[in-house]
Amino acid sequence: MNDLRTNFEDTVGKFVDVSGQYYPLNDPWAPAIITKEQIDAEIERLASVDRPENGRRSSLIVHPRANPATPGLATSVQVSLNVLKPGERTQAFRHNATEVNFCIRGEGVAVIGDRRIPFRKYDVYNTPSFVPYWRENTGTDLQVFLTYTNVPLLQFMQVHHWEDNPPLLAAVPHEEEDAINPRRNSPYGTFTIGDDGAMLMPYEKLINPPTVESNALHWPWEKVEAELKKLQDLGQDYIGRRLYLLYNPMTGRTNGTTPNFFATITIRPPKIVDRPHRHVSESINYYFHGTGRSTVAGNVYEWKAGDLMLSAPGWAVHNHASYDDYVYELTIQNQPLTIAMESLLWQENLKEPPALLGAQMGFDTNRKSAA
Question: Which DSSP string do the residues of 289-355 spell out, in sequence order?
Answer without folding.
Answer: E-EEEEEETTEEEEEETT-EEEEE-TT--EEEEE-SS-EEEEEEE-HHHHHHTT--EEESSTTS--E
